Amino acid sequence: MQFQQLAYFVAVADARHFTRAAEAVHVSQPSLSQQIKALEKELGAALFSRARGNITLTDAGAALLPLARRILADADTARHEVLELAQLRRGRVRLGATPSLATGLLPDVLRTFHDRHPGIRLIIEEGGSHDLVRHLARGALDLALVVLPLPSPSPALTTVELFQEDLVVVSSAGDEAPASPLRIADLEGRPMVMFRHGYDLRDLTLAACRAAGFEPYLTVEGGEMDAVLGFVRAGLGIGVVPRMVATRAGHDLRVTPLARPGLRRTVALAHRSDVAPPRAARVLQNVLLTAATGLRS
């Protein structure tokens, strides 16, 4: 079994078409078909069903696809690791982060890292913790900043708690100032702007409101972090966001703390347990750990 054969197999699985797959990997269609047949012969099973021109995965193909993606991702990571020079003059780091952490934590951290290692290319993937864990598991990320507890804990991942952070209520500076601090119960009946499904902050806020005995009144829902802050600025409702994000949001938003025990989230750094992160990723990990030291409370 060769890496090239696996790459051709993944290309056909993605395109569901041999000619388009051949174009995507820059080989002739007969060459690609020949390599797929050789792979099927070696494995002793058909990988694709070719019925009336429709290309679908067989059971064997469906079982192989996630493994092939992971093998190819690991090979790509190994290639970049070998290419890195001793002084970290070049290379890459693929870092996943929830949108709120990308907005609140990463700008200063990445600035510090880039100043020290300007040749390292930083590739940032934003998403919810659930999606980031999935990307880590299949080798598409080196590190990920996630919120604990994870939706689906995995023994294949190692997580290191970085810090805990308070959530606060933000409102338009033009609205009447709410009482300070606010209790969760005080949010009942107030117009609220809510994040899209899949956001850790959405799940945390809704759970807190329901635990207090009410369903929040949502005027707008489905936005990303920047959109939610913009909706709040426009006076469409309040929002519940991390303090770090609120601090960076500007003077046109009013920040009100929540009364104790309030709401807190636990931020952690995750990576695969079975493969050590590339060298450049380990250096970024140390920068993140140093930054987190000053955020622990």
UniProtKB/TrEMBL annotation:
UniProt-recorded Gene Ontology molecular function terms? DNA binding; DNA-binding transcription factor activity
Q: What is this protein called?
A: DNA-binding transcriptional regulator, LysR family
Keyword line: DNA-binding, Transcription, Transcription regulation
Which species expresses this protein natively? Actinacidiphila paucisporea
Q: Which InterPro entries match?
A: LysR_HTH_N, LysR_subst-bd, WH-like_DNA-bd_sf, WH_DNA-bd_sf
Q: Which PROSITE patterns match?
A: HTH_LYSR
| PANTHER family, per database record | LYSR SUBSTRATE-BINDING (PTHR30346:SF29), TRANSCRIPTIONAL DUAL REGULATOR HCAR-RELATED (PTHR30346)
* Keyword hit for Transcription regulation: yes
SUPFAM superfamilies named among the record's database cross-references = Periplasmic binding protein-like II, Winged helix' DNA-binding domain
Concerning its family, UniProt says:
Belongs to the LysR transcriptional regulatory family.
**Per the record, GO CC terms?**
protein-DNA complex
Which Pfam family is an annotated match for this chain, by its short name?
Answer: HTH_1
* Record has Transcription regulation as a keyword: yes
Q: Where is the HTH lysR-type domain?
A: 1-58
